[in-house]
Each structure stands twice: as structure tokens, then as C-alpha cells.
Specification:
heterodimer; A: alpha+beta; OB fold (Dihydrolipoamide Acetyltransferase, E2P); 6-stranded antiparallel sheet; 3-stranded antiparallel sheet; 4 helices; 9 strands; globular; B: alpha+beta; Gyrase A, domain 2; Alpha-Beta Plaits; Elongation Factor Tu (Ef-tu), domain 3; 3 domains; 6-stranded mixed sheet; 6-stranded antiparallel beta barrel; 8 helices; 19 strands; 21% helix
Chain lengths: 126, 360
Amino acid sequence: MAKVLEGLYYSESHEYVRVEGDFGFIGITDYAQNALGNVVYVDMPDVDDEVSAGEEFGAVESVKAASDLMSPVTGVVVEVNEALEDQPELVNQDAYENWIIKVEISDKSELDSLMDAKAYAAFCEK
Amino acid sequence: MENKRTCLYDKHVALGAQMSPFGGFDMPIQYSGIVDEHQAVRTACGVFDVSHMGEVLITGNDAERYVNHIFTNDVVGMPDGKILYGMMCYEDGGVVDDLLVYKVANQRFFLVINAANIDKDWVWIQEQAKDYDVTLEHQSDIYGELAVQGPDAEQVMEEVLGIACKELTFYTFKQLNDVIVSRTGYTGEDGFEIYASPNYINECWDKLIASRRCKPCGLGCRDTLRFEVGLPLYGDELSADITPIMAGLGIFVKLDKDAFIGKDALAKQKAEGPAKKIVGIELADKAIPRHGYTVLNLECAPIGEVTTGYHTISTDKSVCMALVDSEYAKLDTEVQIQIRKKVFPGKVVKKQFYNKNYKK
């Protein structure tokens, strides 16, 4: 059973946002890391890049394939998780602890179109 | 169309394998994980269900002459119990399929072909046979197949399955009733392949899994293993458009033997040098070149395409095989690869990224 954390917002493409004030920590869900298998590379944007809700901002690569990362919200990248450059496997170890980018969210109303934990857990069951 | 299932399908599902379509079959891609399974084969032993592979038996007065007509390697003078790798080519030198030819006895050959090409190959093999006194039997549904691979494979075969195989040398086989055992594989490690009835294959599988000396392995690591040692996959490094000469597999094309399909075109290509070649490319960065990505020269003009790429498990490097214009095929040539929005520098290297460890 994939782990789903309360209090996060989830997208249908299996990214999450953990909101702290004006900032959002974006990563992939436990369900996604499990489906991908061994993560061997995370392609991250640069700090100050703009990301848009529903648009690709990078990729997570497993041994077998590359999966695009879709941003759940619009904003500006203020930090990338540099630990993943040398240890991409951290995403497999704990997908929620090891977020990928931190963005300054420009429009918090976008969060309303994402799923809460309960809805996402049900979505993964389908 | 519904995918076919191998005789071990239910066992894969019961083991919790991730199943995916491949070559018209629902096949296990991984069980415990590609990295774990890959390491098991490199360091100990793994077993693969490769029952999706196709088999054709060719017999009759002209069997030898016929096989030599459709096959790039030379079966004349081959001893019984020997196996050769090679290709079936079109007249223009493009590849119908790459395959193994087992010489069972005088005028009796057993061909092992790729799952994805079974229907096409069967039509091709029949069409070319018109002027030959041969009997063709399509046996893909009769045989299941296991590959037991890794440095411990010989011990596991003998002790777990009770199949004596010490005396089998590289690329030889023996047949006991309806069971064929060969010292072959597609991993770069020592290993064996067993062709037998679905019942026997199921028995062997159960014993191997129960012994815990052999990890179940999926097609995911089969691809990473074959890639690391530079073995081609039909559809990636060989195709109707990629000849064995372009792929650097000229050693399996015997241009000194009698006429065979594709000989003239391949001889010409070898003499003139092909316009494109399969090369290895190593990237400085960790980004991973994947099948279909564009290879660029230093001026950013496209010069080719990636055929297979991985971040290798055994050597921890981002490398690929690619089909590039021949002027860029020299070792150490600097090239670039477009990966999503960015361009990454790399250089041409030998396409064997990890040394084979065969027992010969």
C-alpha cells in the first residue's frame, strides 16, 4: 500500500505539494516512486526558473524510463534539492521527505483544484 | 489484439511481478527491482522466463543448404551440438531478425528467433524455402524457455535441476528427449538456456525459485545486462534499416561463403564503408540518453539517434549506443545529445561498457 500523507495536496500525475506559508515543496508521491522503481537521476530546473501549473518542469528517471515532472502549481523556483544530484535514490527511500523543488507559489487558489489525502488515496486505488 | 501469455504467466503474477507487454506477450518486467535483479545475475544467479522467444525446426535433404541461404553465418561443416549466432537479411542487407541456429544433426537445424518477429520471420522463412527440399515446423507454441544466468549458473543447474552441464562449452547444447540445454544467454555472464515443454519448464522454475539460489529476473534487467556488454537488440541496434555491417557485427556475416540473401549488398557496404554506424557514447553528466533522442555534433547539427541508453548499473555511468553518421564514429569524437530541453556533451567510446564474463 502506497503511503499518503495528510495535509499535502496531490495531483493526478502523482506529484505532491507541501505548503509552508507562501512556499510549496514539490515532489513525487510514494505511489509514483514505487511505480517507477529505482530512481537513478532527477532532472531539476534552475533556481529562479518559472514553473506553471500542469506543465513539465523536469523529469525523474528510473533505470527503465524517464517520467516528466508536472508542476501542480504556478510559481518561481527558490530552491532545488541538491542532495538528489548525488543521491537520487533518496526519492525511493522517502518520497515525502525528499522533495524536489521549493517554489514561491504565485496563486494559492490553484491548490483548490488539487486532491487532498483522502481523494488521492482513492484515486490511487482506481 | 490480446497479448499472449507464457506458460509461467500465473507464477509471475503470484510472485508480484510488474507485467508489461513485450513482443506480443504479457511479460514480467521486474520482481524485486531491476537493480537488484541485475546485480544477482552479475554476482550470483538469476532465472528469466524467455518462453516468448520463437522456435522453428528445419529438416530435409536441403536443410543445410537452405539455412545457409537465409543465414549470414556459415553452417557448413558445423559439428552437431554447436550453435551459431547470425542474422537473416533482406536483399538490401537490412535485417529480418537476428537469431541462433542450433545444429541438431545432419540436415536438422533448430532456429531461435525474437518474439516480436515471430509472425514476420515465419512468413519469410516459408517464402524463401520454395526451391528447397525442406520441412519447416513452427514450434514456438511447443516450447517454453528459461535462461539461467550468472557466475553460479553451472552449479545451480547441476545441483538444483540435476542437469549435468559442466561438459557444455560456450555456444554448444545437448538434447535429452524433448529438453534442449545450451550454454548461451543474453547477459554477458556465463549461463544456460533450457527449451522444453511447458510442464517441464514449470517444474524447473518452481525448483529454482524454491532453492533461493536463483533470483527471478524480468525483462527490465535482461535489457540492462545485454546493453552493458554491447549486445544488440533487434529494433534498437538492428532493423530493416540497420544492417549487421552498420551495427559492427560483420564478424557474423560470412562474405566468403556461397550466395546468401543480402550478400551482395552487405559486401558492397563493407567495401565502401557504411554511411552510418552504431557507436557507444559516454556522457560526462548523469542525465540519461534514451532510445530516439537526437545526437548532435559540436555545431548542434543532428548526426544520429540514440538506439539504447541507460545509466549503467555495473559501472555507474550514463552511456548509450547510437546510430551516427560514420564520420563521427571514431573513438573519442566529441558529440552532444539532446535530452529534453538541454544538450549534454559526450564522446564516442567502445560500445562494450562492461566486460563479458563467459566461460569458454
